[in-house]
Amino acid sequence: MHAEVIICGLGPAGRAVAHRTLAHGLPVTVIDPHPERGWTPTYAAWADELPDWLDPAVVAATVDRPTAWAVGEHRLERAYQVFDTAALQRSLTLDGARVIADRVVDLDARTVRTAAGRTLTGRVLDARGLARSPRRAEQTAYGMILRRDTLAPDQPTLFMDWRRDNGTGPDDPPSFLYAVPLGPDTILAEETCLAGRPALDPAVLRGRLECRLRARGIPFAGTEPVERVRFPVQGGTPGRGRIGAAGGMIHPATGYSVAAALRAADTVAVGGTPWTAQARAVAALRRAGLRALLALPPRDLPIFFEAFFALPAPLQRAYLSGNADLRGTAAAMRGLFAALPPRLRRTLATSVAGVGGRATA
Fold first, then answer.
1. Residue 111 Cα distances to 74, 126, 239, angstroms
2. Which of 83, 181, 186, 229 is deepest in the core (most CB within 10 A)?
3. pLDDT in tens, the chain (361 residues)
4. For 291, left (φ over 0), alpha (ψ -120 to 50), or beta?
């Protein structure tokens, strides 16, 4: 008989691994303080990142070639997909699982203790995410959900737009516009601080977003539905027994983790780990990349991304997605470094070595 799998946390990572563990016929218990709470963030992924088992109906919108603006405009040669968040949550069914509404207060590889005094034993997986800490860089964002008919018909999907029509000067902590369709009728326009320690407050980002919308002639009433984002992009411990942010699956240069958790769910469900030696090396390189981003002076961040988005598409993909392409990740970082001006190379070399660094990117 198989040991029970005990999954702590029912965010996307925990729910995905619970769903796939049940699909493999293994007994599952899930523990979460609010197991029925609906998810509210907007999740997205590159289309080629998603596992075959995922129901295609969870995708709300697909963009074949999203746009990035750094110093100039770039079309990214990859399909980008935005999830219907509620549909994604519903699709990861938990039929047959034992669901416990409780808070985990202690756990190890075989035992979980809860606030209500329960003690459970089995194969334990921690999917509870990451707690905020002043020591961890965070991503923050403030977004409005706008009607698509208020935008110009040729308004592109914006993966990143670093242009400074958001009321900032070249030495202000930078933020970019992220603008993606949520379906046929609505679009999310979100001002985003990619990573900061401390990160920009969402109230600051709200003012920047409103300034940017006015500058582009996009009407808004101030009563639109909003989305606020705040989460660490550092932390987590790769290895067995953890998945999602708790398992170090947040991409430190983008903040993305849902696709990585979905891809890893089958492996983790049957007792494996996605953290091969190559994957650990890739993660270490990306952490170095985050140190580089945090070290750059604000006026140089668009130059950095101009060089990145000028890289060949396979190198962009190697850095942005997956966790096992060590050669591609290293090649992307070498190509980026070579394309930058000498003064930025010096800043990056110092920061990657772990010396000095600014606080916001």
1. 50, 11, 17
2. 83
3. 356 999 999 999 999 999 999 999 999 999 999 999 999 999 999 999 999 999 999 999 999 999 999 999 999 999 999 999 999 999 999 999 999 999 999 999 999 999 999 999 999 999 999 998 989 999 999 999 999 988 877 788 999 999 999 999 999 999 999 999 999 999 999 999 999 999 999 999 999 999 999 999 999 999 999 999 999 999 888 888 999 999 999 998 899 999 999 999 999 999 999 999 999 999 999 999 998 889 999 999 999 999 999 999 999 999 999 888 999 999 999 999 999 999 899 888 887 765 444 556 6
4. alpha
CATH architecture of the domain with residue range 138-232: 2-Layer Sandwich (3.30)
At residue 319, the 3 state secondary structure works out as: helix
Specify the fold of 5-130+235-269.
FAD/NAD(P)-binding domain (3.50.50)
